[in-house]
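LOG
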Amino acid sequence: MSETAGKVITCRAAVAWAEKQPLSIETIQVAPPQAGEVRVKIVATGICHTDAHTLGGHDSEGKFPVVLGHEGAGIVESVGEGVANVKPGDHVIPLYIPQCYECEYCKNPKTNLCQKIRFINDKAPMDKVCLLGCGITTGYGAAINTAKVEPGSTCGVWGLGGVGLAVVMGCKAAGATRIIGVDVNSDKFETARSFGATDCVNPKDHGDTPIQKVIMEMTNGGCDYTFEAIGNSATMRAALESCHKGWGESVIIGLSPTDISTHPSQLITGRVWKGTAFGEGSTDQ
């Protein structure tokens, strides 16, 4: 058992005291885990746009002060009463959407929105698996689970950061024959191609021509599936309007601080607009 089990410990943390304010590096106290809780020593972490979304004051459920961050990997330091699925020393990924297997959400195959247990991965390199806590699982799952990309399809991915690249990976794994990456930073294109993108487009290279028109012309009518991994209402609309009439589906992954809109005809003519949380994944995947 850890020497610190059952004791209050001190840690260094980047504290967000209020929205839109700089983070403050401080020493904080962390209480021992209570019943059903686990205290984890974080070894590696990624940075998610959701944290910036909360810090920017765009999350109605965001509470301050807070230590932001949810995309990590670490080692179980101690556990609270009733915890039987992990033990001190286990390597874990503290996913932000766990699974209890008991509630109505866990028992319903249509959703993944539960809040309890943690996933164990004893031998995985923590500086890599930390990304499974959000970014990779979200993007990859958006293609595989939410859109259910089909072999031979054409896909468009807006935003070629970590989440967008994971979408590209998912589309490739699903058998898409054409994967178009869209980003205003052309420096990302080489990496995107290494992940499976077949085409890369920078909207800045096309002047005043809307990117949806560019994509429609490139694909002879639009993509079968598009994904928005930026968190911008304008690119969300562009991704939808780049879908093929009659069957195109557009998946929103990013969080936008503003409302989204499109002309009703885009939906009436058969396009589908949907969202995804954590790629509809769960802790047992």
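LOG (cont.) second protein
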Amino acid sequence: MSNIFREFIQKVGSGSHTSENLTRAEAAMAMKMMLLAEATPAQIGAFLIAHRIKRPTGEELAGMLDAYNELGPKLQPISQPVIVLGIPYDGRTRTAPINIITALLLAAAGQPVIMHGGDRYPTKYGLPLIEIWQGLGVDWTNFPLDKIQQVFEKTGIGFIHTPTHFPLTQALWEYRDQLGKRPPLATMELIWCPYTGDAHIIAGFVHPPTESMFQVALELLQVKKYTFVKGLEGSCDLPRDRTAIIGFSSSKTQELERLHLAPREYGFTSKNVPLGTRAELIQDMQSVLAGDESEFMQTALWNGGFYLWHSGICPDIQAGITKARELFSSGLVAAKLRELIW
């Protein structure tokens, strides 16, 4: 048993009136002790559930990310600006994800992208990114980190599979299943950046208070460019059934700039594509890559148009939609996927 870790439990687990927040240094130490199994299983479980009940602060998330940055894998800088997409680790269960198509589109347009994720995790056990990539013919679990770096430099796309490239995290995911709740680690990982260069962090969220936690943590980490998307199932995917709510860092003030984007104003119907089987999703993705018109293509164009504009490739969203359609119909996005199949 660790007496130091017991003190952290006492601070966060003393109840609504007397519990205290951890400092950034304390949160970093607590995270390292959990990753390195220096705390006992009983202590780790107690801490995770107590911390969830208390709710994390931005400073605590920054400290946890300090530990991830010290112990976790990192891709090395390239000469271009990079986008890091933060997407929930327990996968999708209701709506078809478009983010991998978005990443391929951005890379085909010259905007490098890094993604990261694990396997099917509690509490949703939804469809994870790694299984979709595998269905498209790319198995990132076969690549060691130095190979990921080579692929990233060549193609503009990198993927960190946490069980393979950051195995210290694996034991902690067992606690999610046993506790039946997502611990604050799940929130923290949405803004984790497995890259040593300057990056534009794009993270999805569900609950509005998450935005302020993200912003505080990233400012403490001196990340200056970030975007938060109230997306489908907490992802970075823009919805079609409601107005998309987006906040992003401002170069002029410390306040978030705010966008409210209505799909119908850009000619899109208010319908999200439901998630069927993985095989059906892969077939729909292959259809988009072939340039075929479909409901899923509408989702791809809506998301692609926004991200091509937001990354500075196109002057406005409508131009981004036009550019996305051109990239799909020309076969350049499909060619980008073929570059990844070794």
